């Protein structure tokens, strides 16, 4: 702030109003005799006169006034400017009250009957493959010791999927007009000859393998793993629950070529 902004430029006006001693102010004649040739940036070598002391006092008052005015301007600028919190709240309020964009309608793709049939065939192929892969994995778990093993596993199916996969062959046990017609559990039975039709392209019997084990006993000791063996499926049964939308598959299996079960 320039020094002449002080009211009346105190260095050139009577400032008796700023003094309470009633006689410390300078007269016009005294101010006119102010030693302007004094360089105040350097130590004063000449004797301090009353006039010189008065000039210094007035300059101090002027600087104090300038400092007070500058502080007031800074405080006013801070008060007028919105705080960071206010600005953030205003942005949030604006965003909250802004109207949400209207949803864009997406038209469903139009398919032809041929495309629908192709998609259904692809889904059926996938479900059959998943069913065969799950069965193949489950058949690896038991120890095969020349006895029939029963393996169970579960798969989730809707009624439409259950019908498309399992109704192509086999025998419906229930519900039938003569056997629990109101049952919510559907049971179908399949013979070995039905399996190629049931699994279609997914049917790969050479991939059905398990581990053969010796039979342990008092004289033979603990059972030992003998190696990998090919498996034959003797029968397959599926039970599908309407409430659970889940199919439980039961498979009776034996080592390939083993006919000892026929003698039982």
Description of the structure:
The chain has 264 residues and is an alpha+beta fold. The chain folds into two domains: 3-78, no CATH class; 119-263, no CATH class. Helix content is 34%, strand content 20%. The chain contains six helices and seven strands. Strands 1, 2, 3, 4, 5, 6 and 7 form a seven-stranded mixed beta sheet that branches. The protein starts with 27 loop residues before the first helix and ends in a 9-residue tail after the last strand.
Which SSEs are present, and which pair or pack?
Elements: H1 28-32, H2 50-80, H3 84-97, H4 113-138, E1 143-144, E2 149-156, H5 159-166, E3 171-174, E4 185-190, H6 195-199, E5 209-213, E6 225-241, E7 246-255
Parallel strand pairs: 1-5
Antiparallel strand pairs: 2-7, 3-4, 4-6, 5-6, 6-7
Order of helices and strands: HHHHEEHEEHEEE
Level of helix content? 25-40%
On the 0 to 100 scale, the average pLDDT is 79
The geometry reads as elongated
Q: How big is the Rg? A: 52 Å
């Amino acid at each position: 702030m320039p020094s002449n902004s002080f009211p009346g430029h105190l260095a050139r006006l009577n400032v008796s109003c700023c003094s309470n001693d009633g006689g410390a102010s300078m007269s016009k004649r005294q101010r006119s005799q102010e030693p302007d040739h004094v360089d105040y940036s350097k130590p004063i070598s000449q004797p301090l006169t009353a006039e010189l002391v008065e000039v210094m006092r007035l300059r101090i008052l002027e600087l104090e006034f300038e400092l007070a005015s500058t502080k007031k301007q800074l405080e006013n600028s801070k008060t007028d400017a919105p705080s960071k919190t206010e600005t953030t709240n205003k942005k949030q309020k604006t965003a909250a009250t802004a109207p949400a964009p209207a949803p864009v309608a997406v038209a469903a793709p139009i398919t032809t009957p041929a495309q629908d049939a192709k998609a259904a065939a692809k889904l059926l192929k996938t479900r059959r493959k998943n069913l065969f892969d799950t069965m193949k994995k489950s058949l690896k778990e038991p120890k095969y010791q020349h006895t029939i093993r029963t393996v169970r596993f579960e798969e989730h199916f809707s009624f439409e999927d259950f019908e498309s996969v399992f109704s192509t062959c086999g025998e419906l046990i229930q519900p039938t007009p003569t056997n629990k017609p109101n049952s919510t559990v559907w049971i179908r039975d399949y013979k070995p000859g039905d399996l190629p039709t049931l699994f279609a392209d997914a049917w790969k019997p050479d991939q059905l393998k398990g581990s053969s084990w010796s039979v342990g006993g008092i004289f033979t000791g603990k059972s030992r793993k003998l190696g990998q063996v090919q498996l034959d499926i003797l029968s397959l049964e599926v039970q599908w629950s309407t409430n659970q939308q889940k199919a439980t598959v039961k498979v009776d299996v034996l080592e390939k070529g083993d006919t000892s079960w026929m003698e039982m």
